[in-house]
Amino acid sequence: MDKKEHRYCVIMCGGIGSRFWPYSRARLPKQFIDFLGTGRTLLQMSYDRIRDLVPHSNILIMTNERYADEVRAQLPELAADQILFEPARRNTAPCIAWAAWHVAARDPEASIVVTPSDHLITREAEFTRSLLDGFDFVEARDALLTLGISPTRPETGYGYIQVGDQVEGDFSKVKTFTEKPNLELAKVFLATGEFFWNSGIFLWTAASIQRAIRRHVPDIAAVFDSAEPATYRNPAKEREFIDLAYPGCMSISIDFSVMEKADNVFVETVTFGWNDLGTWSALYDLSPKNSDTNVTQNCNVLSYNSSGNIFAVRGEKLVVVDGLEDYIVADADGVLLICPKAREQEIKRMVTDARLKFGDKYE
Amino acid sequence: MDKKEHRYCVIMCGGIGSRFWPYSRARLPKQFIDFLGTGRTLLQMSYDRIRDLVPHSNILIMTNERYADEVRAQLPELAADQILFEPARRNTAPCIAWAAWHVAARDPEASIVVTPSDHLITREAEFTRSLLDGFDFVEARDALLTLGISPTRPETGYGYIQVGDQVEGDFSKVKTFTEKPNLELAKVFLATGEFFWNSGIFLWTAASIQRAIRRHVPDIAAVFDSAEPATYRNPAKEREFIDLAYPGCMSISIDFSVMEKADNVFVETVTFGWNDLGTWSALYDLSPKNSDTNVTQNCNVLSYNSSGNIFAVRGEKLVVVDGLEDYIVADADGVLLICPKAREQEIKRMVTDARLKFGDKYE
Q1: Cβ neighbours of A313 in B, within 8 Å
Q2: Residues in a beta bridge with A115
Q3: Which residues are CB-neighbours of A70 under 8 A, at least 6 positions away?
Q4: What are the counts of helices (DSSP H) followed by strands (DSSP E) for chain B?
Q5: Residues of chain A neighbouring B327 (CB-CB closer than 8 A)
Q6: Reduced to 3 states, what is the DSSP secondary structure of residue B146?
Q7: pTM for this one?
Q8: pLDDT (tens digit, 9 = 90+) per residue, B288-313?
Q9: I want to staple A206 with a disulfide (CB 3.0 to 4.6 A). Which of A99, A104, B197, B333 is the partner?
Q10: B326: nearest CA in chain A?
Q11: Alpha carbon A285 to its chain's center
């Protein structure tokens, strides 16, 4: 059996993208949007990137029931049993655990790449090569591998990974995971050459991640160990079990619960162009600008005395703007946001304020 | 026969309201909008004001064919022959001439009040009394009467009427009509007590306005004299005649072509609250403000660090705004405008730019 046959790809696709509200909405988050105007949504682009890397039936989408129709419509190639529905939002650790137990029950020798569905990756050939190398690495040892992106600027919006001893080629032990730094610290990180952006893309064998979860988050492991492997091979029984058991998992990230605690964590340092599309400013920075340095998403803009803005407007809309600098103008599905780019960290609070004042209809 | 039976009201309702673009649109101009959130559109409010002043069947709406459905929907009380459709836009002189010939053919003793459909009038009892006095005045003499509003501030957005010799009570000869003054001149106008705002509301007998049009704009009179009075009494024949003849009229205002030239022009000075709703700033000024001094039309607004704005948004929309001062934010039917109030005189140019760049779909 070719080693490719044991390789799986898990695309996590349950996020609600609230930082891009109102353009990204709880009912249609950013992974389901053609965010870059390429004709493919971010989820579709994520799928396209890994399609030839693993056997087609080894691709799994982890998402929420409310996005079932959207996922099916965007990826009609997938069989019904390739889409797993989380009955509740519980952050990444329970999601990744379920995927591991699910895959292990089918193939005890499986290795897995876990990837978000809403990031931008520009150099796909390099991405493919990095993942193939990563599979080889984790299949040869009991390792939890995370991909670290070579930083190109002192970015304060990302977490960083400090590399330790080199193991081979691009692979090193992880020394520390860091929180988002301030600008001064980010400049130091960049200068040392030891720090890499934490991409949230992971590789491991099913056995390694199960072992790590059993050791570092036994409560979550116990939930998934409470079903027989046969349950994970029967879609109806698995669904019934998950609907009951999954909501009982604690809500915690895989980074915090496992990666920052385990001693077999490695980083592959990679150089494919990457952006987590985590903020409006990030999207502005990487988007092509018009002659006024404005960025437009999906709309016609007539601008006067205006620069440095990003306009993201759903529908065939015309935006006419005068005297506006460095703003986000986002308009979609019943909500118009006009907010300085420098204040975008307040958007989550605005969503909360809107909910308190008007209920959930604008979420 | 009661004198009321000879009184007619002509509501001019064919304007396109481009100064309020995109909230007011060529396909649904401001007179058809519930602009003040009262539950009645400006046209309906205009109708309500004059409904009891003249016999119901003596009310005429002058509008454009494209607004036929809207007028019928908003004023279902009207019979089909009470709505006259201009086949082309030709400013006020041809419109008023047609109305005069139409009414005169039915009732040679008719007197007429002509009123715009898109102004705000707040003191309706005083309005009614002023119009009844005005009818009495014009029925007693060969007079062209215009209503002059006592100014309450040095407004630079209106034309003014200077009063001459008093005839009786609130009625005087008109000395001059003036263009919109600058602020300095407007302050002088206010101080003298001789200047009144030109409201665009006129009263006259059908015979008087016909005589004045024949004398001062004989080209237009000739068009309407080219049909027999019987034509104006037969809706199908009148329609056929107007569709052919009306587009041949020159496009000119009644003020410029008749009122500024005739020597039998009088002004009734009145004090009912009046605003021509001609600019966003005027609308802002007269609208109730929230605690942040923002004005909202028809939408929910969450504002942060924002004041002095007017938000006019169609549909059940939420506007979330941060760091915006003294702007117009207007969103309707596929167009979003964000423009400083101080730059609103540029809006007409923006509409033109939009047409040049994207065709007429955003008009």
Answers
A1: 336
A2: A11
A3: A28, A32
A4: 12, 17
A5: 323
A6: strand
A7: 0.79
A8: 899 899 998 878 899 999 999 999 98
A9: A104
A10: A323
A11: 19
